[in-house]
Amino acid sequence: MNKKIRVLIAKPGLDGHDRGAKVVARALRDAGMEVIYTGLRQTPEMVAEAALQENVDVVGISILSGAHLTLVPRILNLMRTNGQENVPVFVGGIIPEEDVPILLQAGVKAVYGPGSATTKVIEDIQRLTNSE
Amino acid sequence: MNGQALQDEIKRNRLTLARLITEVENDTPSGRAALEELYPLTGKAHIIGITGAPGVGKSSLVNQLALAFRHHSPSEEKPAVAIIAIDPSSPFTGGAILGDRIRMRDLSGDPGIFIRSMAARGAIGGLARSTAQVARLMDAAGYKVILIETVGAGQAEVEIASLAHTTIVVDAPGLGDDIQAIKAGILEIADILVVNKADLPGVENTERALQSMLLLANSGQYNNHQHWDIPIIRTIASHGDGALRVMETVQSHLSYLKTSGEWEKRERLRIRDEVEHLVIQAFIQHLQENVPLADLNNAVESLFQRETSPYQEVQKLLCKAGINT
């Protein structure tokens, strides 16, 4: 048996800046994880569909457009409908401080702003997937 | 769960299928048990391999081909399409970036399409070790067309030919001259040749090199395709140009396979290949379990000192595992 942690890195919404998403994807790869990267401008439906078909252990969402309060709950809802309510979701990008509690309340496990250490993201994912 | 019930369940519930694929990919006991139950119900899908060098446009072609099957199939019922897209794993960390879905965004939202990315996990040959088994699950789940995209293949990654019924080799302008085209390897396994990026300069040269390769092959005595002329099709996959023709050609290849008896021949070869793989895997596992690491280390040490020869050491190690050769 050789279980690997599978992570979906998704980039929903209309902003075209995916450097952050790529940095995280690369860091997770170097930590031995299998990272499914779906590219820019995904709809919430596309993100949830990819999470389902790929049966990922974790979903990371990168948003810099400011639309996180619309997009993230929509993705969480779709994942719930699909039976993936137990798959941890984290968010990275430009998220105003006052929005962080709202996202956590909605079910997001962690929010990483600019300057977050990728080692922290890796540790969190390893912890979250171990406790399953 | 018996086979029929399990089949009904993975036909109905895509999450169950997705989870079962993970079990099979990780080679767990429950994954194996499911495959055993489902085995008698499989063998109905047309498995199509898409291979070629990195960057020739395999993912884009798979995207367009899936669209063609879903929207332009001549048959009354549009076939459900499953896609397995394989990308390489890092030899150092075992991690992987699986990015083939980027080119397949047009396929999202269609419940008749199921895309799964797989990391090669150290397997050489262009596939992952469990790709054949994952394809079997999709077959059992009712996907009539299974498209398998290999890792970006060079010259020797030809394993797809023993898994797929129809193998498409994708080439693009500017990748090599006519000597590349007559080297052994990947071009030999093609049932259909595609020259993608046909809007780029040099497309005539690429096409001509492939044509002369085919002419040479046809004049030789080892021609395996006596009733099937390997076609060369130009495509511009990013725009969808030519995809319809590729699909129609894939379908005529299928009827050729069925009418010529080649289908049965390839199925037998496929099964033989799979059994051989499994035997070798089981054999390696048996060795790992029965030969203590210390013995292997001792062998390395005495070889390093030149006290013995590799063949003698192999004999000794096999003896330990209860195998006399």
Short description:
Chain A has 132 residues and is an alpha/beta fold. Chain A has helices at 19-30, 44-53, 68-81, 100-106, 118-130; strands at residues 6-10, 34-37, 58-63, 89-93, 110-112.
Strand segment tally of chain B? 8
Number of strands of chain A: 5
Radius of gyration of chain B from the CA trace?
Answer: 22 Å
Oligomerization: heterodimer
Q: How far do the termini of chain B sit from each other?
A: 42 Å
Helical content class of chain B: 40-55%
Structural class of chain A: alpha/beta
Structural class of chain B: alpha/beta
Structural overview:
The complex is a heterodimer of chains A (132) and B (325). Chain A has 132 residues and is α/β, with parallel strands linked by helices. Chain A is 42% helix and 17% strand. Chain A is built from five helices and five strands; from the N terminus they run βαβαβαβαβα. The radius of gyration of chain A is 13 Å and the shape is globular. The mean pLDDT of chain A is 92. Chain B is an alpha/beta fold and 325 residues long. Chain B has helices spanning 3-12, 14-25, 29-38, 58-72, 131-140, 160-163, 178-182, 203-219, 243-260, 262-290, 293-304, 310-320, and strands at 46-52, 81-87, 96-98, 113-119, 145-149, 166-171, 192-195, 232-234. A seven-stranded parallel beta sheet of chain B has the order 4-2-5-1-6-7-8, with helices on both faces. The mean pLDDT of chain B is 89. Chain A binds chain B through residues 1-4, 6, 25-26, 28-39, 42-43, 45-46, 49-50, 52-55, 82-84, and chain B through 14-15, 18-19, 21-22, 26-28, 89-90, 93-99, 101-102, 105, 108-109, 114-117, 119, 121. Strand 2 of chain A pairs parallel with strand 3 (96-98) of chain B.
